[in-house]
Design a protein that fits this description.
alpha+beta, about 35% strand
Length: about 525
């Protein structure tokens, strides 16, 4: 049998088997449909809240959650794997004498939630006399609401065959354009939550997110080198229409051409250079050098996992000149297509109206906060930043969508910014990164590095990384493109905490110019 025939048959067989498994899981999950979970929520929430109050809770909440995920991964001519999972359960969270108690279970039924409530109360009471600080709960509004993320096509309604055909077509385009290897895939998640609390809120929410990707690799057969270029398509809070409508056909061919150019490009000479950074790269710098440092729990030392605490201490609030006056960075959980976009956070705080500037014209003005944190810095209210990655997770302070705001002049573009650079680099696409334990000193790479000479693009460099610290970097910004150049990037699974929780978050940006930053040659730094 010819290899092509074998791969074609193996791919078809894999898709059929995976589709059968996919359908079986869907059939099994019919017993816990949204309608039935809504009915259970209505029945059990009153029981939990009443019981918690009788046992001494000053605040209580009951949550049901269900997460459904599907992924399909391909390489060259074959489907490499298909995964489908669904998980559901419930939890009880209580506040007793200033201490939290929490318990969760897969079983969503009367006797189990009664036991969960008792366990959560016992955990809270066991902390009495052992805590350095009590939880001071802010006043909360009561909301009765149902919210579903707007979308045109539910990705879970689309067949695996259609998704596989789309991905394999992308691979075929890459191979025909000269790639040696191409892998591609699509990951999709549906998140459903039901929340009731003793304030009187009853909230149901549902949202979907997608992460399409590809990566092409070319080889230099004579010299033994290789070069890769990943897709610039960002993950989105969106239906299947995003994957269907995105122009992967053109992008994958462009990726191959850029990988060819990168393969033949000279290594960069280390030193100080002006940088113009595209949103597809800058989103990650925003995430690491602004997003994480301004999490209040990290700044207070309560969170020290995943690269430590933060240099942005509370005494710097309203004082630190974090960036140049051009820079305003806004937090917003209502942004269209944002990965963190939702109507209510997992504390039951309505997100509309909670938008805020973390950096306002260069000045650090606010932290991200979850319930019970505001009083620690003398503020009255949190700002809608709580998230739990499953029913079994305690809500943590997690990032809203955090974005660099565009410049005022819409005639300014990346080309405009480049035209005022004599010796620099235009960086596109995100790559690897490293940041220290205070979220201060960092290093980032990218996908493509375009040489700027006398205001024009002039070929490529390879082996580029830029280095700096969070304050000096953002204060070096002296140019921002206008609103029409704004793009969303984002992280599908940002890790935090122990036990680890992962959260989705988007970061919007425009092309931005930074003066005289340190550039490294990564091959030289590695001793190669």
């Amino acid at each position: 049998m010819k290899r092509r025939t074998f791969l074609h048959q193996a791919t078809a067989s894999g898709i059929i088997a995976s589709q059968l498994s996919h359908n079986l899981v869907h059939a099994q999950s019919d017993d816990s449909s949204s309608v039935n979970l809504s009915q259970l929520f209505s029945t059990l929430s009153g029981q939990v809240l009443s019981q918690a109050k009788k046992l001494g809770a000053s605040f209580a909440e009951f949550r049901i959650g269900r997460d459904t995920s599907e992924s399909i991964h391909t390489r060259e001519k074959a489907v490499q794997g298909v995964n489908f999972s669904a998980d559901s359960g419930c939890c009880v969270r209580v506040l007793v004498d200033g201490a939290w108690g929490f318990a969760a279970s897969h079983a969503i039924e009367k006797n189990e939630v009664r036991q969960l409530t008792q366990t959560a109360i016992a955990i809270a009471k066991q902390q009495q006399g052992k805590r350095l600080h009590v939880v001071n709960l802010e006043s909360l509004n009561a909301w009765q609401d149902q919210w579903q993320m707007p979308m045109q096509i539910d990705p879970f309604s689309v067949t695996l065959e259609e998704k596989a055909d789309r991905l394999l077509h992308i691979n075929d385009r890459a191979l025909a354009a000269g790639a040696k290897f191409c892998r591609s895939g699509l990951v999709q998640v549906r998140e459903e939550k039901w929340l009731a609390n003793s304030v009187g809120s009853r909230i149901e929410q549902s949202r979907v997110r997608l992460r399409p990707y590809f990566s092409v690799t070319l080889l230099d057969e004579k010299k033994g080198g290789f070069a890769s270029r990943d897709s610039l398509a960002a993950p989105r809070g969106s239906g299947y229409e995003y994957f269907k409508e995105y122009d992967f056909d053109s992008e994958v061919v462009q990726a191959v051409e850029e990988a060819k150019e990168k393969l033949a490009a000279p290594g960069v000479k280390a030193g100080l250079k002006d940088l113009v950074i595209h949103p597809t790269n800058l989103w990650l710098t925003i995430h690491e050098s602004i997003g994480h440092p301004t999490e209040l729990d990290r700044a207070l030392g309560y969170e020290a996992n995943f690269a430590g605490t933060s240099f942005v201490k509370p005494e710097l609030l309203d004082k630190l000149q974090y960036a140049s006056e051009l820079v305003t960075v806004r937090a917003d959980r209502t942004q269209a297509n944002g990965l963190s976009t939702v109507a209510y956070d997992d504390d039951g705080v309505k997100t509309a109206g909670q938008e805020f500037n973390i950096i306002d014209k260069g000045r650090f003005t606010n932290y991200q906060m979850a319930l019970g944190q505001a009083s620690l810095i003398g503020r009255e209210h949190s700002n809608g930043c709580a998230y739990a990655d499953s029913f079994s997770s305690f809500p943590l302070q997690r990032m809203p969508n955090i974005s660099l705001q565009p410049g005022a002049d819409d005639s300014v573009t990346a080309d405009t910014l480049i035209s005022d650079v004599e010796d620099g680099i235009y960086i596109v696409g995100s790559g690897s990164w490293s940041i220290d334990q205070q979220r201060y000193n960092f290093q980032f790479t990218g996908q493509t590095f375009h040489k700027i000479k006398n205001g024009k693009l002039d070929g490529m460099y390879k082996d580029v990384a830029y280095q700096g610290n969070s304050v000096e970097f953002w204060n070096a910004c002296d140019g921002l493109a206008g609103p029409s150049t704004y793009e969303l990037g984002g992280a599908f699974n940002c890790g935090k905490g122990r036990p680890t929780q992962s959260a989705p978050v988007s970061h919007g940006a425009v092309p931005a110019r930074f003066r005289q930053l340190q550039v490294l040659n990564t091959q030289q730094e590695a001793g190669a």
